[in-house]
Amino acid sequence: MKIVKMMLFLVRAEDGLGLMSPERWPARGLEGRGVARWHHECGGAFVEEDEGGSGRRRRRRVSRRRASAEVAAATLSVAVSGARASSPRSVTYLVKPDSSAELQPSLESVSRGAAVEYLGRGTRGVFLGEHHDALADHAVQAELIRSLSRRRRTCVGLEAVQRQFQPALDAFSAGEIDANEMRAAVEWDTRWVWPFERYEPVFRACRETGASLLALNVDSEDLALVETGGYDKLGARGLEPYVPDAERFARFANTAAFKEYVKYVIEPSYDAHAKMGILKTTITGQTLKEDMPFRNFFAGRMLWDSSMANRAASWARDNPAGLFVGLVGADHVKFGCGVPARFAFALDESLDRVRSVLLNPSPYDTCRDIMVTEVPPFTLQLRFAATGSSFAADARQTASADQTVLPLADLLWLGGQPIL
Predict the structure, then answer these.
(1) Rounded mean pLDDT, 269-275
(2) Could you tell me how far CA 191 lies from the centroid of its own chain?
(3) Is 0.85 surpassed by the pTM of this model?
(4) Cβ contacts of residue 98 below 8 Å, gap of 6+?
């Protein structure tokens, strides 16, 4: 193995971030890509599209979930189509954060076998941060499920499926229904909307290996209550399944690391939703008189992350020798404070027993402003405290008490088929 000081990128430190300049990250321009312009009128989201670069525009109404899906897919296609088409074989890098005054994070190139060993050895959980629409990401997930399940009993958790549909996943795992029947039973096409076909490699791998499936996501009906009235509207009884320990839930959010994470990840996500004009609808399509306030947006996002982390931790407690593998969006994995650290905190485990992986990441996955049109630098870490600060890691948000940066992930995995 060797240390790679950004063979793909040039490294520089700026404002406490570990940044890579994008000069050598292949990406196509926006021209002729059918990139959408987003509008908000009469409480609904609309998209205007260029028809094949002809200059003609067409407009159609879309739901909030569909709007988010389509703008993400458009941004992703611009960022990565050139970069990944030439990399069909897996390439893996360990992220090496740097809390010193130099703030010079690096990547360590490792073999596929070493990467799999790193993910499976002594760990309680592995979270694979995906782009929901990316066949390449799901191909890597299927590959890892097969490899990891040969070592230990494995459970695969799905952000794509809400908790109420666990019986359908159990029936699929038991061979009682096929994939298409499961798709209908979990209401995939209305509650998730990302193409089911892209996930089929994952379901085949689970069926072949005997890995069980676990529904992670908060039920839409409960999330909609929080989006319209905060946690009070859901009530203590409704909140308890997702947040079994309210005091720990609050303590997790009251750290310098988490507050920096919110500024860099959650607040820009809210701003992007506002720019797309989709804050006047809840996740279930209910129309609001005004844009959803950040307070409720933030509460919904925390409920979403807490649901996935606590559901995963419950399985891990019941299966101490097993390995949990979570398939969740990259936004819930990057910089750790979404699901991975919450999972460790719920288990009272050190963060070094949890692994976070970003699949086929692009610079757009790592920048603060996800609506930028030029390829941004590639951020490897966030600094949340001054170098040398005495810092308590009781919320499991860092691997050690003296670490003052949040790494992008533990491992970057590039591979699979071209993403589009």
Answers:
(1) 90
(2) 17
(3) no
(4) 18, 104, 105, 106, 381, 405
